[in-house]
Description:
single chain; alpha+beta; five-stranded mixed beta sheet; four-stranded mixed beta sheet; 13 strands
Amino acid sequence: MLPNKAPGPDSYTYRYYKAFLPTLKPFLCRLFNKVGNNTPFPAASLFTSITLIPKPGKDPEQVDNYSPISLLNTDIKLLAKILALHLDPLLPTLISPDQVGFIPGRQAYDNLRQAADLIWCAHTRRIPSLFLSLDAEKAFDRAEWPYLFGLLTHLGFPPAFVRVVGALYDSPSAQILIPGADRIPFGIWNGTRQGCSLSPALFALFLELLLHAIKLNPSVTGLNVGDAQYKLSAYADDVLLSLTNPGTSLPAVLKELENFSLLSSYKINVDKSEALPVALPTSDRLALTSLTSIKIVSSTITYLGIRLTSCPSDLYSSNYPTLIAKIKGELQCWGRYMISWIGRVNCIKMNVLPRLLYLFQALPAPLVPADIASLQTTIDQFVWNGKQHCVARATLYRPRTLGGLGLPSLFTYYYATQLAQIVAWHSEAGTRRWVDLENAFMMPHGLSRWMWLPRVHRPQSRTLCPTIVNFLRLWDKLAGKCDLATLPSPLTPIFGNKDFALGLDDGPIWSFLPSDVCRLYHLYPNGQLMDFKQVAWDSGHSRFSFLHSHQLRSFATQQHVKAAATAKLTYFERLCRGGTYPRGLISSLYRALTSLLDWRELSYIRAWEADIGETLDSEDWIDIWDMSCSVSICTSLQEQATKTVIRWYVTPTQLARYDPNVPDVCWRLYGNRGTYYHM
């Protein structure tokens, strides 16, 4: 836990607890164990300070436009964190894939990509639909505790766990921190506290019952794609419903919301909720206005900060130009300030890049290259403060720990985010709803197999979904160019492969092999050809299976098939084979893409080695780069070290080459030539 987090009313920080942990640990352990045995916390421990954070873009004169953040005492936060660490691994099994907020392994873009795909589906198939974005009124603050604790018991949590959670909400009190105002304590009787590590998980469980009721209600119908129906998605208190037959579905949803409100005090903020009709006749739109006071918009709704449009082709123009123009204006303003070279790079990495990355992940729309190139030029000009560039772009964009400056390359980050979602295509069925949806668009060909086929062998795509088309086009562009895969790849599927004619049809060969043998590398476990005769016996089939075994052996022993099946997997192929979305995936992919240039190709490395008359190996250079990054916490000293390593400074010998009248001796008049090596 970070040591400098704001403390609660007792003013003890994490730094204090870490410094005196050997002394405090036994007392904290006894305290937490007693709480599990029905011993309440002291009232002072449950006292909280509440600070009000204004919501961006909202009227600060309105009380509703502030988020109350609870500053809990550190001992309470420690216990809440312990409970959250125990609860978080269970959430993916307790919470359906439709809910992604604060669930390990799930991200906001999961819902946004699903929403964009569903809008495209409704628009192209002309399915009258209503996309309803619901905003909950003070969602975290309205949760009723009897309902919440009853839900935990119903879900089968151990009584001791429920008692400890209950102890955190046993008659707490709070004070509001307002400059110049008296701090008047008051009691709290409902809600989960924003600022508590346990609150997000509790709210996800709190909301799951409502979502489950809506999904089970036969009067609420969603979009049917393949064998599944898509009715809703949620991120914390932001719920998006995708409804068909709105005249029937909408009243049923409102009834479910009313019933849930009576049980839990959950309430929808009608003024901030919106409904977007897609392919809905005008008469039906007018009829909906009599069913609800929720605003029905004509072209766009905002969900999780993204403007979703009724026309899929407007998705890019409704989101990117506004953000790009805003960033350019900010960079122009920041350029007036005296900011160091590395400080300017850090401004881009910490302020500009996160906003763009969110769009790169959330919007499945192809980029307009001219827009991103223009923004990259503006960023480069900001970093160089309008002066001439002195470092090659390949060095500028390379990570600092690999000999570069670490300036974000927007196109490369875009490629990394798209490749990360291609990795997500390989998730198990049922873990990501948008993956199941896009696979349904491609039926009977699964995306995670179809993409690995050579382009000339691919069956005709069954969908024109712009998301899928854009990703496959990007994959074909980058696969060979960026060494993401060997062609053909060990991940090439056996079935649907034109090299193996027997696997093109749904014949008995499909049932002959185990279900986990579906790619070329499966034919050579541990580098050895699998025993097809043993597989035939294990399959329990008739002697006809021996014919299949000989046919498979003939296919597997072809020279080009064996070479592909036994080839070493690339970094990206290993990610796809794993079928998981590891933490830091985008950063890892970006690092790999920006490091394609061999480190020996960096021009300053050759220059340094020529100066010292010695060839340094990669470990030497890694040590040099690490030391230049960690020479000091002062950015000015870091900048000086980095500029020296990449030979940014102009030396007397360089000036002498430009002007013969300028001497090439050291400026300090030591009589030596002023080379980098001398400096």
